[in-house]
Amino acid sequence: MHAAKSAGGMALQIDLGHGGNANNANVGSGIGRGGSSKKRLVMIIADPGRESTAAMEWALSHAVVEGDDILLLHVNMPLPSGAPAPAPSRTGSGGGGGSPIAVLLGGSGGAADGEFMETMRAACRARHPRARVHAERVEPATEGREAKAQTILAESQRRGVELLVIGHRRISSFLGLRSASGSSRGHDSTAEFLIEHSKCLCVSVQKKGQNAGFLLNTKTHKNFWLLA
After folding, report:
1. Where is the UspA domain positioned along the sequence (predicted)?
2. pTM of full prediction above 0.90
């Protein structure tokens, strides 16, 4: 079983919400899934980019178990006036196709905007054929910098989500952006907002190269590395 480790090398077990406190995390080996067979709703944030691909690859390989339902949620955020449309990435973060899931999802990079969610849904069904997989687009529920995060938060609470998975986008620190508290804004504010405010367990995922594993963050555990 794969082990998640901190910068200090300590093995970590994260309770992913089957029959227990969703925010509980214990030292141990591997990623814990608990002993309960209680059905969960797992929400994966779907976007046409490599961060979302990495989040889905981790979720399907390490978090979703038989009996879970999967909801792919995309928030239709308007582009800033005059801003060019972002070019979707063809692979997971760090380059290279890697796992069969990443290869399948890699096809979404060349798909039109309206097609990437169908590709992601197909990946879910290929890995978990018995799971009920839903893909939905929603409009932002509010305006402002945190509109996407607040919309995801509201949808997760309304639907009774038990595990929320989002790709973590690393923002260049040279911009020198800082919050009112003085902390660096060189991180993904949407992922951090959801980790801090979600009532369910929220896991942000960043892929560290084709074979280097994943960097995971939760409310209680920061920068834990899941070996590939």
Report:
1. 42-200
2. no
